[in-house]
Amino acid sequence: xxxxxxxRETLAVLPSHRRENFELRLEQWWPDLHxxxxxxxxxxxxxxxxxxxxxxxxxxxxxxxxxxxxERRLLQPDWFQRPEMFxxxxxxxxxxxxxxxxxxRLDHLTDLGVxxxxxxxxxxxxxxxxxxxxxxxxxxxxxxxxxxxEDLSDLATKLRERGISPVVDLVLNHVAREHEWxxxxxxxxxxxxxxxxxxxxxxxxxxYERTLPDVFPDFAPGSFSFDDDLGEWVWTTxxxxxxxxxxxxxxxxxxxxxxxxxxxxxxxxxxxxxxIAFLWKRLGTNCQNQPEVHAVTQALRSMCRLAxxxxxxxxxxxxxxxxxxxxxxxxxxxxxxxxxxxxNSLMVHIWSMxxxxxxxxxxxxxxxxxxTPPSGTWVTYVRCHDDIGWAIDDGDAAGRGIxxxxxxxxxxxxxxxxxxxxxxxxxxxxHNKETGDRRISxxxxxxxxxxxxxxDPDGGFARIFLAHAIVAAWGGIPxxxxxxxxxxxxxxxxxxxxxxDGDNRWVHRPRVSDADRARRFEVGSDAQRIYxxxxxxxxxxxxxxxxxxxxxxxxxTDVDDGLLVLVRRHPSGTLVGxxxxxxxxxxxxHARLLELGLSEPREVLAEHDxxxxxxxxxIPPYAAWWIV
Length: 628
Hints:
Layout: H1 8-11, H2 16-38, H3 44-61, H4 64-75, E1 87-90, H5 92-96, H6 99-103, H7 107-112, E2 116-119, E3 123-125, E4 136-142, H8 149-161, E5 165-171, E6 174-176, H9 180-186, H10 190-193, E7 198-199, H11 203-209, E8 224-227, E9 232-235, E10 242-244, H12 250-265, E11 270-274, H13 291-307, E12 312-315, H14 321-324, E13 340-342, H15 344-356, H16 360-367, E14 377-381, H17 394-399, H18 404-415, E15 427-431, E16 438-441, H19 444-448, H20 457-474, E17 477-481, H21 514-518, H22 526-542, E18 552-555, E19 563-570, E20 573-580, E21 586-589, H23 590-595, E22 616-619, E23 624-627
Helix pairs in contact: 2-3, 2-13, 3-12, 3-13, 12-13, 15-16, 15-20, 20-22
């Protein structure tokens, strides 16, 4: 199909070099855009042309500073894969009260080494219970208590000046029941009814629910809710006040294309695509990870590349290992979908290794993951805002002589502090009585032995450092969850805030005050020890080109059962990560380091000597060694 030309009138007001830039990008990304909508809709030409017009309007409105950022990113397309990337995630109000307040408290992040800042949901949510901000009522307005769109734009400018890329959530699967689209649907507007999945009776919902899992079985069982105003059933995967969108309707795609451009032009550099796995509904499936999800992402990303190539997409797909790779692009979508995806299985296996003292299952599962597409990368993390679901693959577990269900049960017991010898103080979140699955809430400190009771403080410090050293060595963007850099044991008053008492995930979403931040300067304090340890990880990482995402990650499977050994190969050299997940010294053959290409091996994270004994180097309990 020939390139569309309706956008040229929109761009006529721009200087010639700006118009030429857009046309060159259109030549580059038009095939990706058209291919994606062809996989989704019966009239792809019209949809694709409209997306180009939306991009052109966004491009024409983009500031000169952001145009310059676009050019810089195009000249350095691997900017987000480089080892200097180090992330932090927080709620604006729980870190700096407002957007302006956060902008006045950036030294804490800069000193930590942060170059990537994920600001948790900050768009206007529904009043009252809103799933931590993931029930959005207005995508074009910032929460009033946090500030304004102008404040967000100003903060993005400040962050950019410090070399920090701002990340904002974009909830794709659903909107709040109070959103304008849902309100118009409830009033009977047929155009907006088609934005949602609405059914007159239970026949179709019952057919779908035969294969749909419950996401929140405790307080939101089922996937459909009866709406009194409509007198009909609405698809609500998460909560009755979060209405799932009908992405089979191209109007929904076009609405979100406008929203993407709005956020990109405020200076957002990464859009976290929330609940992306749930977008496409197909009868007889679990309605997750359907192939159309990746076509939707490709369409939005291609459109965004035309106007704002500095803005990347991050897939929030907390799915099993077998379903994870397509979110970074496989087959026809390679290099065309999300630039970044969450490595949920790495987080799960880190906690699994620490609890069991065995790396056998982790080595098998992680070694079996296909290589990352060269144009994408992971977000790796020890904790996040959410609970931990024990996503252990049943096949991987069976291959190691254990059952997936049994190991998940053990991990829940351990991290709830119910297993003999456990040093953890987590809280059980969402106990599914049918499957026995229990998820766990808690800060990194609380799950490591540095919780309110300080069951094992020395071991806790070591485990926290070890876990963060693993995610920083894996390859990708390691992200620290707010409060974990200071060793917060959790918020003891989490249930006292309005709307929080039924959701214990707020225990690991503590407020970080100026007094908390000041504790990193108190010599010998928990905060000082942990903060300095994480800052060192970021500082050392920055100077190691073998931690660039393009370097392959190999997991050695034939090593001592207490060790996780990673090999990162890069033209500049090789890095071997030796990580001891046990409370005992563990051996690794010194000659093996030489075989792996390290002729003069030296450890750079703690800068200690490697002295072999009986032919092996002995890694201390919970130690993390980066050897080059």
